[in-house]
Write a structure and sequence with these properties.
Number of helices: 10
Strand content: under 5%
Radius of gyration: 23 Å
Distance between the termini: 71 Å
Order of helices and strands: HHEEHHHHHHHEEH
Number of domains: 3
CATH architecture of the largest domain: Orthogonal Bundle
Strand order of the largest sheet: 1-2
Oligomer: single chain
Number of strands: 4
CATH topology of the largest domain: Cytochrome Bc1 Complex, Chain D, domain 2
CATH superfamily of the largest domain: Cytochrome c-like domain
Length: 267
């Protein structure tokens, strides 16, 4: 290649890639409104933004990767935690976590009921932004690291339903971000260590008021209709509504089957 052809190749390539870059930039700007569902921004979302900024939430948390990394990213927190739990948590975080036992440092901010509703409206709007898969993983908290079972290979494409269910539990289902598999370790939800054994006893207990008649049916009910039966004395509900978010809408029927198969192994 001669010097002349090299210069032509360099300048020609520079022009082409510059035009491509400009085109992609223009395309991005023309789709921002749709990707951020700007039409859903109402007065509550705007007030919630002011609550977020007024209480300096970004000093600890991140949204869309922006902010501090001291506390979890909250880009998809409403989908992962549910509004019922978040409302109760924001009212008094100390109800759920002990700084001595869990190392939780979330302060009680003294938010009013209206401020809680507004900031959750804002976070719900953020949750609906098309982020191209960001953040790359669900919220992880202490005690929620994926754990395996002997003889079960946790792969989404595994042959055994229980193995696929375990991969779902630790991965796309984000179950491990709320439930530990170690006894007496309470995260957002109760520990699921031995949940199949508890289910066996529960469905035969006269005090049980749900609709399940078997372990598998009870586990399925707990996933699809978590408020159908609330365990007395537990701190995982408010006003007769479970803190368990509606995850069924994000899972296929076959995935629910796999998840139940996995949970049934936890004895």
């Amino acid at each position: 290649m001669t010097k002349v052809s090299t210069r032509r190749f360099f300048f020609g390539g520079t022009v082409v890639f510059t035009l491509v870059f400009i085109g992609l930039t223009i395309h991005t700007h023309t789709t921002i409104a749709a990707r951020t569902h700007a039409d859903a921004i109402d007065a509550g979302v705007v007030r919630g933004l002011h609550v977020w900024a007024g209480y300096n939430c970004e000093n600890c948390h991140t949204l869309l990767g922006e902010g501090a990394y001291y506390a979890p990213d909250l880009t998809e927190v409403v989908a992962q935690r549910g509004r019922t739990y978040l409302a109760a948590f924001l009212a008094n975080p100390a109800t759920f976590y002990s700084e001595e036992r869990h190392g939780r440092l979330m302060p009680t901010l003294g938010l009013s009921g209206q401020e809680i509703d507004d900031v959750l409206d804002f976070l719900t709007w953020v949750d609906g932004i098309d982020t191209n898969g960001w953040p790359p993983r669900p919220i992880l908290v202490s005690g929620a690291a994926p754990r395996g079972l002997p003889g079960i290979e946790a792969r989404p494409d595994a042959a055994e339903p229980a193995a696929r269910g375990q991969a779902l539990f630790n991965g796309a289902g984000a179950c491990a971000s709320c439930h530990a598999l170690v006894a007496d370790v309470a995260l957002v939800g109760p520990s699921l260590a031995g949940v199949a054994s508890r289910a066996t006893a529960r469905v035969s207990d006269p005090a049980y008021s749900g609709d399940a008649g078997s372990v598998e049916a009870y586990l399925r009910e707990s996933i699809l209709a978590p408020s159908r039966y609330l365990v007395p004395g537990e701190r995982y509900s408010a006003g007769g509504i479970s803190f368990m978010p509606d995850i069924a809408g994000n899972l296929e029927p076959g995935q629910i089957d796999d998840l139940v198969a996995y949970l049934a192994t936890l004895r």
